[in-house]
Design goal:
- By secondary structure, the chain is α+β, with helices and mostly antiparallel strands.
- It has one domain.
- Helix content is 47%, strand content 23%.
- The protein contains four helices and four strands; from the N terminus they run ββαββααα.
- Strands 1-2-4-3 form a four-stranded mixed sheet, sandwiched between helices.
- Helix 3 packs across helix 4.
- The longest helix is centred in the C-terminal third of the chain and has 20 residues.
């Protein structure tokens, strides 16, 4: 399963990929190999971010939330925005936006 989410304010897209073979899907999408098997991971190339989840991980909200946290940081990093105690509101809104949209796509 692949679902795209546009994040307009940061001019990026997130592709949510549910697969039993994360390394192969990661390589297909980014043409770059990862060397280990994971239940979930986040990757980036240009303005495209990938959230890769094994089917079992996609059913575990704590794992999805963990990866959304990484995704939030990576998007803010790409946008050259700070995510510290003095600048956390933008990160909180982005995390909320990603959580709402990613869980909506996982329900389908």
């Amino acid at each position: 399963m692949r679902r795209k989410i546009k994040v307009p304010i940061h001019d990026v897209e997130v592709v949510v990929v549910i697969t039993k073979n994360i390394p192969a899907a990661y390589k297909r999408m980014f043409r770059f190999e990862i060397d280990d098997t994971r239940m979930a991971c986040v990757g980036r190339q240009g303005r495209t971010f990938g959230l890769f989840l094994e089917p079992a991980a996609a059913r575990r909200p704590e794992i999805v939330a963990h990866e959304i946290f990484h995704l939030t940081h990576r998007i803010l990093e790409k946008s050259n925005m700070n995510f510290d105690s003095g600048h956390h509101e933008m990160g909180a809104y982005l995390c909320e936006y990603l959580t709402k949209n990613i869980f909506a796509r996982l329900k389908k």
